[in-house]
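Lecture 7 notes: from sequence to structure.
We start with the chain below.
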Amino acid sequence: MNTMNKNPILQIRDLETRFYIPEGVVHAVNGVSFDLHEGETIGVVGESGCGKSVTMMSALRLIPNPPGKVEKGEALFKGRDLLKISDHEICDIRGAEISMIFQDPITCLNPVFTIYDQVSEPLIRHLKMNKQAAEQRTIELLEMVGIPKAASRLKDYPHQFSGGMRQRVMIAMALACEPQVLIADEPTTALDVTIQAQIIDLIRNLRDTLGMAIIWITHDLGVVAGIARRVLVMYGGFIIEDVLVDDLYSRPLHPYTIGLLSSLPRLDRASRQQTLQTIAGSPPLLFHQPVACPFRPRCKFAVEQCAKNPSLMDVDQDHRVACWIDPETGRMRA
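Predicted structure tokens for the same chain:
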């Protein structure tokens, strides 16, 4: 599959993650593989519980063990397997070369430390800055993410900031060491629409300025349209479609992706009174080792062959899909 004329900076290979809980074993991530290229932005979409966040947290070794465990796979960052290097080495990479923005800043920012303490920590730890240099750089970072009168807010605490401002602080922390890869885990979900747009514009501008690669995790297909080049659609712990963002909307080829797009309100629908479609059934519980296509119980195209889970197949130069059926024709793929 052709993607970009640049080298992959992050390569996820056959990643599998399980959670061992009293109710049983949850097969959260089931053989996920993809490449992230230098300067590329990938959107990862899917409903809650599909494995989006767990995939990325597994690659950075942020899964609590127990109950979670990465059972298999590789996460190659510039050729080094993040799953096999020492604890000291992965700590040196996290926050410096790979940063992550989490969904809810109020739970991620420490309420008993000042904004300066938290933003300056990666500067002091990774870049070995002294206090004076770290303070100046912290002010620059806060100004860069649009926090007014930044110098006067260094001694403030997270509760003194609004939700949008706290998210900007999280972005400043993530960008402190100018990472090569930024993982944004639904960073705008808790914000109102106006602030969402501001945060997306901010990250897009910083991406173009710093040249970093981004993985943007979201359940909002509208968000990825404005920031991503390529989209990974996940379901049941699998990537079920890998497609350029324009083709996602014009030619979705997995029944689940088609169902997701059909459930969105559209201004260009023929009738404003047209009823939104729904996807029948419920998401899989993932307590059993997946053998069949995970979408099979909810799919109107399901056939006998779907008892065997398909791998991603090339259907176009930059389009792969894990489905035995071509929904455009209703026929089996060759």
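Points to note: DSSP finds ten helices and 14 strands in the chain. The chain has a mean pLDDT of 88.
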